Amino acid sequence: MKTQVCIVGAGPAGLLLGHLLRLQGIECVVLERRTPDYVLGRIRAGVLENITVSLMERLGLDARLKAEGLPHAGFNLADGERMIRIDIAELTGQQVVVYGQTELTRDLMDACEERDLEVVYGAEDVALVDIESDTPKVTYLRDGVRHRVECRFIAGCDGFHGPSRQAIPADRGQAYEKVYPFGWLGILAEVPPCNHELIYSNHERGFALASMRSEARSRYYVDVPLTDRVEDWDDERLWDELAVRLGPEAAANITRGPALEKSIAPLRSYVFAPMRFGSLLLCGDAAHIVPPTGAKGLNLAASDVYYAAESLTGFFGRSDNDAVAGYSDKALSRVWKAERFSWSLTKLMHRFPEDGPFERAMQKAELDYIASSRAAQTSIAENYVGLPL
Ligand code: APR
Ligand code: PHB
Questions:
Q1: H/E run at residue 310
Q2: Could you tell me the pTM of the whole model?
Q3: Is 384 a catalytic residue?
Q4: What is the distance in A from the centroid of ligand 1 to the CA of 355?
Q5: Which of 262, 296, 330, 350 is catalytic?
Q6: Ligand 1 pocket by C-beta < 6 Å: which residues?
Q7: Catalytic residue among 12, 193, 292, 330
Q8: Cross-sheet strand order for the sheet of 280-282
Q9: Ligand 2 centre and the CA of 47: distance in Å?
Q10: Per-residue pLDDT of the chain (389 residues; tens, 9 = 90+)
């Protein structure tokens, strides 16, 4: 088949981009390796910045988000002794919305048929061909038959392990990477949250986060050594650990319940630059990973997609070649700032095994400074709600 843009991957990045392009009348097809149920089974973060909400608004797909999303005016940093509330509404005039990535993906998925966005699920062995030329192709296997998509651009929205970034010759880009010495063990449970706002806690036993999906569904995390396995943590052990790490006030309000989902995710900071190579544009996790501290992953995918849609619209609508040429620099400028914020919040809130008394004293001093400085709180708040596009 022939189309204008072939999108690889139907996660949030691929589906958002597909819908934005269709809104502009640009032809595209999305190729996804998995089934819709598999894609919806992946539990990820759930804090949306304004830019992500406004993309859903622009698409007219925000009805459920508006009805069910929980606006949050602040969040908390705890350090075992105190809670520092970051009043993001007062400090920035903005809010974030707690709405699961799964729900956002479902909204985008449900609208595909009506919006005439074609998604091919079960596309195996996707391969990108001639990406440096103006006539790239994507081939894939479906039901044992090889298909070929001829297009003008490929959008690589296929996550960290997908084939798009790997199609770029190693000597034509640079990878920047930091791997952290722990992972986050997460639990999802049908119980009311222990606090109406998120709590990020740096306790001597390690990090903990109290989050939520709704008034009736909670999401919690603790950091664990990379050698730990989910089986090492039965529900009771995890609830006990959360109660200790979140501090007595939160602990008193924790409602325990059986895990609907429990998994360990490693933490990584990663950027691949540039984010465009020839006719291939990388978006979302295909180009970069942030540690989940600060919940930037999905929001960064949304800002990439915003820039990618602008570039492609410029190209197809106004024959503006520079629009595509500028994609990588624009996207990366925002990516690096979010990488910095996620990394610094991770360093502030976790006990690294290699850290000694000096590093701990620095954490304490920084938390003291944040507690006493409106400027420091404003800096955290403006990064948390998302920097401007
Ligand atoms: N062929 C086709 N599709 C593929 C292939 C492949 N070879 N490899 C991966 N994919 C698909 C995955 O199955 C997945 O549905 O690409 C999609 C990528 O989705 P995500 O991993 O969710 O990445 P992205 O859309 O960039 O979302 C970024 O969402 O997933 C979180 O942590 C992520 O929060 C971040 C944000
Ligand atoms: C979540 O609710 O899953 C979540 C919230 C905030 C984060 C990370 C994850 O920083």
A1: helix 297-318
A2: 0.97
A3: yes
A4: 34
A5: 296
A6: 8-14, 31-34, 39, 44-45, 101, 123, 126, 157-159, 162-163, 284-286, 297-298, 301
A7: 292
A8: 118-121, 28-32, 5-8, 153-156, 280-282, 276-277
A9: 6
A10: 999 999 999 999 999 999 999 999 999 999 999 999 999 988 888 899 999 999 999 999 999 999 999 999 999 999 988 999 999 999 999 999 999 999 999 999 999 999 999 999 999 999 999 999 999 999 999 999 999 999 999 999 999 999 999 999 999 999 999 999 999 999 999 999 999 999 999 999 999 999 999 999 999 999 999 999 999 999 999 999 999 999 999 999 999 999 999 999 999 999 999 999 999 999 999 999 999 999 999 999 999 999 999 999 999 999 988 899 999 999 999 999 999 999 999 999 999 999 999 999 999 999 999 999 999 999 999 999 999 99
- HSE toward the beta carbon, residue 335, CA cutoff 13 A: 29
CA-closest residue to ligand 2 atom 3: 45
Nearest CA to ligand 1 atom 22: 11
Alpha helix ranges (H) inside 146-247: 163-166, 235-246
Q: 81 Cβ partners below 8 Å, 6+ apart?
A: none
Ligand 1 atom at shortest distance from the alpha carbon of 304: 26
Closest among 263, 298, 269 to 284, alpha carbons compared:
298
Q: What is the CATH number of domain 5-45+101-177+268-345?
A: 3.50.50.60
